[in-house]
Batch of 2 targets.
Target 1
Amino acid sequence: MNFRLKSLFSGIAAFGLIVGGFTVPAKAVGETFDIALAGDNLAGSISGFDPQATLRMALVSSMGTLSWNNQGSNASLVSNSGNNSQGLWLEGTADQLTSALGEVTVFKPCAGNYTIYAQVSADGLLQNPLNGHFYKTVYNPLYYNDAFNEAQNIPLQAGGTDTFGYLATVTEPIENILVSNLLQSGAWFGATDRDVEGDWTWISGPEAGQVFYRGMADQGGAAVDGKFNNWNEGEPNDSSNEDYPEMLDNGTWNDIPDSTRFYSIEWGGMPGDNLANSTVATDSIDITITSAIEGSGTDQDPYLVDDVAALSAVSGCSGQGVHFLQTEDITLPANWAGDGSLNGFYDGSGYEISYSPNTVVSHDNFGIWAQAGADYETEVRNLWISGDLDATGYNRVGLLFGDSDANILYTNVSGSIIVSDERQYIGGLVGRQWRDIRDVTSTVNITGGAADYMGGVAGEMDATMTRVTWSGSINIDSQDQNYNYYLGGVAGLMDCGGMESSSSTGSITVTGFYYGVGGLVGNGCGWMADSHSSVEISANQSTNVGGLIGETDAEIWRSFATGDVSADSGVGGLIGVAVGNDIYNNYARGDVTAITYGGSLFGELRWSWVENMYGTGHVTAGESRGAIGRYNGDPSL
């Protein structure tokens, strides 16, 4: 190996960063690959390959994550785990891949020593940087025994007479990343417990015969002598005579019965193997990081977040039970990446995070953090957020999270979002929300094209909102001639969640075609109680439009709407269309204008039980019965 020191202290002093690395010369003469760290991004060069050839570049980080944001390199992503992972696999020419290196952001772990491994191949092979073995997935689904036998008949070099493969044996974390993140989830690898139930044994490669895990997860199963395993939570469980392992999308393992799957092959480590004729050019960077955040991350001694550098380090420091405490107001830079993740407990302690003016969103899943709670219980509380985002062309955007599995409490958000046609999941606070929101106020305005699932707080809400308010305006001017779905003051879609003591005020104006527009919720199933809306709605080309909810099968009680509502059909002062629900002790006071049919309470009422309700607004409609436009869908009843 030709060891050489790369650039020291590469401009990230806040992290105490030291960079060193080495090059392993390509075994094919003249093919080289060099990488370096340039700030938070990678850089480097690829040479010696046919400039017109389609190559594959693999990047693997032993800690932290790598994120690729295509900004014009014209490379393409082929890895299984998406563009934000410990492992990336990109495809393109040498020039395209060299450009793509500069588009890769390194999200460093909180602290520690780690390595980024990189390689380029002309034949689609992946090489394990720790033991030199090679890997490939065969995209021909076979039963397990057939895959086992077929792997042993495939040579490393096409037409070769030696170095035959075997089902991959996954014995350490880097190898797990190669076989799962970069290759194919759901693929077979070389283990089973079919001979002795619960004794998970490697049956291929140099590890054949080694038992690495014994037992079932819910019966005290454990690794044998500390050997590597990566079973998913609750696995293995042998729930249906499950004797064979597959990789899941997140790199964890699951035991399943025999069926057809792709399969991952490994070459190397067997007597007589010859790996000398490979065409993989490799390089690596060794990195040492001292923490950018003071504290130890416990409840009693949380990580202290006082500036952009500390906030940037939150993703790397996140984890199960980790605590963060913000101690100063923070203004994000104009080029805030918005693609980190949060796992743990973040207390804003009443301080603010504000975006730089006119921040432009550059990818799907955008916010202060792109996502939250993907791996561990997560909560955000006591935080103020402000900013104006131009989200034209992107999905799952919110000022706090793009996609969230975190509880959000005692948080205020203000600002605006510009959207475009044919997008999805846009929310003032969060694009898509899977956990509870409580005591949150939003004054975010939304303008632009028509996106599916859009709201002043959340685009989609799949849990419970309690004491959540929105005040502002939503102005949509769409050129899309197709119907878009679900627009609401608080949430576009309440997907069988709940809403309690929540409210909305302001206006919603739509030029274009929407299906399901509501002052509080566009479309909702689940339940709603003690909530109200005073939103003025004008959506003259839209259908199923209501002062409180556009369309719903939710149980609703002690709620009301007072705003005027104007739309095409299915227009109600309270609910646009109600189907099969119990609705009681509610009222509406706004005027209703419907081009076809509408009513002071319901635009259309279908097979629902209604009690103790009234509507006092004036109704102007092609057809109406006063409180109800249509009943059970029949205009003649």
Target 2
Amino acid sequence: MHEASQIGRYGSNGITQFASNSDIEKYEDNLEAEEEALEEQERERYLNSLEGYLATEFEDARMWKEGESDIQDTIIDSLNRRNGKYSSEKLGKIKQAGSSDVFIGVTGIKCRAFESWVHDIYTNAKRKRTWSLKPTPIVDLPKKDQTRIASTVMEKYEQALQSGVEMTEAQAYDMASQMRTEIITAEYKEAHKKADRMSRIIHDQMIEGDWIKAFDAAIMDLSSSKACIIKGPIFRKRRIKVGFEKKGGVTKPKYEDEIIPTFERVSPLDLFPGRSCENVNDGFIGERMVLSRHSLLANKDEDGYIKHNIENVLINGITGTNMYTDSYRTERDEAENKDTDYPTAMKSTVEAIEYWCFVPGSMLAEYGITEDAEGNEIDPLMDYDINAITVGGTIVFVKLNDHPEQKRPYSVYGYCKEIGSFWYKSIPELIKSEQDITNAAARAMVNNLGIASGPQVIIPDTNRIPTGQDISSMYPWKIWQGTNMGNTTAPLVDFFQPDSRSGEMLGVINQSMRIADLTLEMPAYSYGSDKVAGAGRTSSGLAMLMGNSNKGLKRVLLGLDRYIFQNIVEKLYDWNMMNNEDDDIKGDMMFMSDGIISLIMKEELSQRRLSLLQVTNNEFDQKILGLDGRAKILADAMES
């Protein structure tokens, strides 16, 4: 090797200077070190920025849910079980073993039965809503009313003295108490009217914001997944019908663009809580979402949106990291029977991540956030709860959480709570073992029935069969040809009939299904099965059994009232108290549930009415009630 490289450079005197190989290697090493240092500085800058902070938090939550725990696997497996399908891995093993792939849909039956219960109570067409707002008890009178009562009593006292009548202290106290009662009664009556108006407004807002659609979709998650998640109220600009107007003598609906509260179901597969979260307001929450390009452009000038970032993402495309490696896309598409990985030249949507988390105040100044919701200057050392959206790692929206109590717009509930966890256990999880036993017994039964469906053929000596004869096929009146060169007395063909074990397998299946009933506290007769014995053979006995069996379901429905309906109604109540200009709807109110309570009362009243009809089924009581009276009681019992 030459001592000097042929690559040179000109010095200040115009003479070419040559460097040795060692100098070049040293120069290249220094250049590489400088580039690595610049990359490290850029990486440090990114990680210390808000975008880097959010990316790090989301990746940690994603790794916990998809890698370190079995949460994502369990959600997909539960969905497959509800749909009566094996996972691809399990189905492959079954096919490899040459077994039947029959699947007994016990899980799907239980899920649909539970959903029917929920819809019967909450979406019954006979009731407008299953909740209401009631005024809180009025204990203390306002200062002005206290002053008015005191001045009125003193005036009456002086009038009594002038007329020569002495008013005792007890009489004055009674007069003040009566006035206080009258004022409280009048104010409470007015408070009831305001609460009723507020209830109607909130109910209308829920209907206009697609509440029914979101609730119906979430109920399937409640039965089949680790949680049902409803997002809302989210205030968006929507075109809604506001009334009717006449145009050219013809009445037509009138539409206007208004900002209204909206609701949507969030798939449990798309929500990523922090690894230590126990509820949505506890720590980091990330949501994988799909945004339309039209929506981003329509909102680019709204408060919180970053116009130049939105335009850059939509014009130049997503050039950065997506911050979401969808390692479950194939499994999810199979479970949901769809294809989201199809190639296309231009998509009308973009994948995004929405964040709700606490971040240091020092990261917010870059985005123009210098004051908190109360107008105080942002403290660089204090953490603030923010809402942000990124597309391809670029922040397109960021804003402080402006709820007075720092609540986030998610309502989460599930079938059976895992103590200390964010997630719940679903029906497919709770009866996983029973479903597996049922399927194993069903596959064995089908395999056995196939074997036992006809005789198996034994050919003791295949040398006696002529060449070319097909011994693998059987059909009626088949002639078996053969030779007997050795004059043997053994038959050419013998037949063996395998035993059927379907009875034992059916016993296993039935017992597993009964255990599933006990596990879920949801016996088959509670949703229409005719396989009832003992007390269930009589109407009163069956009613008693159903009342006892429904206790577990009532527990779930009570939680649905508390964690879904109450949470959402209270958020809408807070928003209307702060933003609605109508003072006739405002006041101190509390949420009252009529859902599960109405169910309990309906069952109790039905039983009592039927019992009353039995007790009064005698000539003396019939004279008192009469036919019309008994008919009314019977009609009420049947209706409830």
